[in-house]
Amino acid sequence: MKTTLLHIKNMVCPRCVEAVYNVLERAGYRPKAVTLGVAELDEETPADPEAVAPLLHAAGFELLLGRAEQLTEQIKGVLAEYLEHLRTARAPLTTSAFLTERFAATYSHLSKVFSRTAHLTIEKYLIRLKIERVKEMLSYGELTLNQIADQLRYSSGQHLSNQFRQVTGYSVSEFRRLMLPQRMEMSAMA
Q1: What residue ranges are annotated as transmembrane (predicted)?
Q2: At what angle do helices 14-26 and 49-58 cross, to 10 degrees?
Q3: What is the pTM of this model?
Q4: Do residues 42 and 32 make contact, with C-beta atoms less than 8 angstroms apart?
């Protein structure tokens, strides 16, 4: 079975997009477009998923064949975009509104598929994603905890602090003091 659309797991940043593009190009395929979680190939060079899977795996990615897995990875990519939306929107949408706006499905459906496939709720995944962003922002040392809380739409710095401790096992001040470089890869969070 040849395909021109590949759904790929573990793509979480622009460098991942570039890496997948390069892997496909070196293998003789002509990518038309590569975005987080998806590579579209030129119709002249459709790919056999069984031939592409080991190439992607060697570069740290995984080819997704099931629809539920594909949707889950797409949701993860959109949740990463949602963090930027939280930071920049004057009146940000709720998580459920943001997701239902992006997908032609109800939040209930998206939530069920995500939970079944990722073994984690969308809400818990989003919390982990936020905490990884908080770690990143803390490591830069440019913003106060309250400024970070404002950017990520926490109700208060205390709420963020409590959630940070719950997820990481460290208080924010312990993390700052130790400056733990133990940020998780986004792909390792599911």
Answers
A1: none
A2: 130
A3: 0.71
A4: yes
What confidence tens digit (pLDDT) does each residue in 94-147 have?
999 999 999 989 999 999 999 999 999 999 999 999 999 999 999 888 899 999
Q: Determine contact, residues 100/76, Cβ cutoff 8 Å.
A: no
- Spell out the residues 6+ positions from residue 171 whose beta carbon is closer than 8 angstroms to its own: 161, 164, 165
3-class DSSP assignment, residue 10: coil
CA pair distance 25, 20, nearest whole angstrom: 8
- What single letter denotes the amino acid at residue 4? T
pLDDT tens readout for residues 4-13: 888 898 888 8
Q: What would the 3-class secondary structure string for 49-89 be?
A: HHHHHHHHHHCCCEEECCHHHHHHHHHHHHHHHHHHHHHHC
The radius of gyration of the chain from alpha carbons, rounded to an integer in Å, stands at: 18
Res. 183: pLDDT tops 70: no
Distance from C-alpha of 57 to C-alpha of 46, rounded to nearest angstrom: 19
Contact criterion met (CB below 8 Å) for 134 and 152: yes
- Write out the DSSP string of 97-151: HHHHHHSSS-HHHHHHHHHHHHSS-HHHHHHHHHHHHHHHHHHHT-S-HHHHHHH
